[in-house]
Specification:
InterPro entries: NAD(P)-bd_dom_sf, Sc_DH/Rdtase_CS, SDR_fam, TR. This protein is 47% helix and 15% strand. Strand 3, helix 4 and strand 4 form a beta-alpha-beta unit.
């Protein structure tokens, strides 16, 4: 299992893209960058906590310098989750979820706009969740933050079309990644059995199945696709009652 960010980076590099990524953990980022360099990948990176406004501003200054004021692709895969009943979510927890999942993406997109516009052909892809489309037990704050991202996608697609910037969003269901929260959830057998029973394809997704859609949306082959929230869920979201 690998994380979304790693899968996306490796997919894009495979199509010839020059990629700049970021992560909070400097040691892990350095190790990953060295692995990519050893493989001949054209990838650079910054240590950045995107939940912090000043850090986002510094990151985009670095990106602007690195890519000479132009950016063809912006991908946001940031996300955090606090799974609690609505009445138990504190003001601080609400702010953490909304700030990390939505505010950080909103602000990064604002900062990236002049770079995307300058490229002449920009593409934005957000990582949302199937929780933005249907009710699941992921916590109402998490679901609301992802729903905000999905609607943001639609508004940007219309607002920035004049700048030749496309905006799309992918909404995965349970996907096997190396994230601790995902690993913990996958170990909850009764919960996972119920989730699988509601998934027509009868299995959970792989990170590469999500990253391949993200990458496709960045390619010229997707040049007429914008404003879409695409479920990557094995049919989960369309399964009303089909025993």
């Amino acid at each position: 299992m690998i994380c979304f960010r790693r899968a996306v980076v490796e997919d894009l590099v495979g199509f010839g893209a020059t990629v700049h990524t970021c992560a909070r953990n400097g040691t892990e980022l350095s190790q990953r960058l060295q692995e990519w360099r050893d493989l001949g990948y054209n990838v650079t990176g910054s240590v950045c906590d995107v939940s912090v406004r000043a850090a986002r501003e510094k990151l985009m200054e670095e990106v602007a310098s690195l890519f000479h004021g132009k950016l063809n692709i912006l991908i946001s895969t940031v996300g955090t989750e606090i799974t609690k009943p609505t009445v138990d979510i504190t003001a601080e927890e609400y702010s953490i979820v909304m700030g990390t999942n939505f505010e950080s993406t909103f602000h990064l997109t604002q900062l990236a706009h002049p770079l995307l516009k300058a490229s002449g052909e920009g593409s934005i892809v957000f990582l949302s969740s199937i929780a933005s489309l249907v009710a699941i037990s992921a916590g109402s704050a998490y679901s609301a933050s992802k729903a905000a991202m999905s609607q943001f996608t639609k508004n940007l697609a219309c607002e920035w079309a004049k700048d030749n910037i496309r905006t799309n969003c992918v909404a995965p269901w349970v996907t096997k990644t190396e994230m601790p929260a995902v690993k913990k959830a996958l170990e909850m057998e009764s919960l996972m059995e119920g989730a699988l029973a509601r998934t027509p394809l009868g299995r959970f997704g792989e990170a590469e199945e999500v990253s391949s859609m993200i990458t496709f949306l960045c390619l010229p082959a997707a040049s007429y696709i914008t404003g879409q929230v695409i479920g990557i869920d094995g049919g989960f979201s369309v399964n009303g009652f089909y025993p």
